[in-house]
Amino acid sequence: MNRSACLIFNPVAGQSDPDRDLAQIRALLDPEIDLDIYLTTPDIDATRLAKEAIERGASSIIASGGDGTLSATAGALVGTNIPLGIISRGTANAFASAMGIPDTIDAACETILGGTTRVVDAAYCNGKPMVLLAGIGFEAEMVERADRETKNRLGILAYILAGFQQLRDFDRFEVEIETEDKIIKLAAAAVTVANAAPPTSVLAQGPAGLIVDDGLLDLTVVAPVNRAGAIAASYHLLQTALSGNAAEREDIGYLRARRIQVRTDPPQKVVLDGEIIGTTPVDIECVPGGLTLLVPQVEEAQQKEKLEGLPNLTIEPKQNSILSEEV
Ligand SMILES: Nc1ncnc2c1ncn2[C@@H]1O[C@H](COP(=O)(O)OP(=O)(O)OP(=O)(O)O)[C@@H](O)[C@H]1O
What we know:
The chain is of the alpha+beta class. It has helices spanning 18-29, 46-55, 67-77, 94-99, 105-114, 138-145, 148-154, 157-168, 227-243, 322-326; strands at 3-9, 33-39, 61-65, 84-88, 116-125, 128-130, 133-137, 173-178, 183-188, 190-194, 217-222, 252-257, 259-265, 269-272, 275-279, 282-295. Strands 6-5-16-13-8-9 form a 6-stranded antiparallel beta sheet. The protein has a 6-stranded antiparallel beta sheet with strand order 12-11-10-7-14-15. β3, α3 (67-77) and β4 form a beta-alpha-beta unit. The longest helix is centred in the C-terminal third of the chain and has 17 residues, at 227-243. It binds adenosine-5'-triphosphate. Adenosine-5'-triphosphate (ATP) binds next to α3.
């Protein structure tokens, strides 16, 4: 008997042709999964569609769209044990990258068909579900600046551009961080509390190599003294993300805790999984094992060679190559 799944599909996510994307997904999944397909609309969001699917007793749910759609669907599934498949079609694809899920339609469908389930942590931020991270300061301003029109024109460059604009207006604020066992006070330019984060979420990379199933949240605080320091700190964090070695600069701090409260003076905007949700204070609590994801069976082995897809490609085996002579 076929598996069944509810597919929640955002027809306006990313820059690709939604009809073609949906046809491709159906062609790949339909033979093995009975799909119950629902499209998001400006009024009916992924959270609502996911909650309705849970009420109907869906045995698994697949979300396809940008990070907004994926996080909203995942948020509705926290604590349900219903497996979630991810087909990422957005601008930044942070969700897939943070969770080690491929971000092409082909490979994502392959993961849904032949992958395995992985139980990961989730969190609640001021009562709202959080899968990736909450950004206070920089990150929030960046998301606000990367508006829809710019995202459509420039894709991920929109975020980078917004980041540079933000650095120009570098601003510090007083912050009080409370965990289960301490209260920390300092002046900072950005505070990020992450459950999971892709390497591109530079401001979450203080500890580097975030662990998504350790039952803990990772806080990174960036506190440069001037604009040049802000740029140097961002660059250092990018290096920590790429190298996997934790940050060492004096103006970057990090810690792990199960519950983290952040208060600021003056109040700062807060971005939760890519959406501005309001201003500080925030109270964030980890939900260990709150989410079940469909992920690839094993980390994909590094390919030694990839040529297919290049324009005008022909590959001819050589008759008299040194290798064939040796054999
Ligand atoms: N049918 C629709 N028509 C117009 N807007 C829609 C529709 N369905 C969803 N939306 C809007 O799409 C937004 C979510 O977009 P999503 O995050 O999935 O894609 P994206 O913005 O392209 O991706 P990214 O966040 O990676 O840039 C929500 O604001 C939602 O209101």
